[in-house]
Fold:
Amino acid sequence: MSVDFTAIDFETANNHPSSACSVGMVRIRDGKVVEQAYWLIRPPVAHPQFLPFNIKIHGITPAMVETARDWSGQLDELREFIGDDVTVAHNASFDMGVIRAACAESVTPTPRLKYLCSVQVSRKTYEIPSHRLPLAAAAAGFGEFAHHDALADAEACAAIITDAARRHEVGDVAQLVRATGLRIQQLKAIPLKL
Structure:
């Protein structure tokens, strides 16, 4: 199986999509985890507040990100980790929305990522009552994990795609997309208002 991709997950400080406060990424080669990355991100000056609800979900506090890099300071490393891979996220519209909004907020070029949503893959693969990450990951055989820890969520997402490829008897992400009738999307920048 040559299932190669990068799974990604963001946590945010508040309801604004540019308020990324952590990212987790998992590189998959031949259906196996070969590299992982995790770091904290300092939210933008325009949206710095940490809502109690968000802190309760992911446990990241303002003090924890005081010395973290801001979006522009970590973007090159994020791009380098992903490289030319298809990026996979569970509810990809959220995670791609974080990238688009954070790039717009920091006036940095939006990476032209190709991406796939593991929620959509889960819906085409598993007969389960909900396709939330913990249930979809369990259906993929990925046991209990620290949900809302960005790295753990990226690992769970990766497990769903790898298991779905096995169940659909395909050898790569392009074949998985065809087998499930889905499409690989292209991340586009938010038009800047001048």
User: Anything to note?
Assistant: The longest strand covers residues 20-29. The first helix runs from residue 52 to 58. The mean pLDDT is 96. The beta strands are 5-12, 20-29, 32-40, 86-89, 114-117, 185-186.
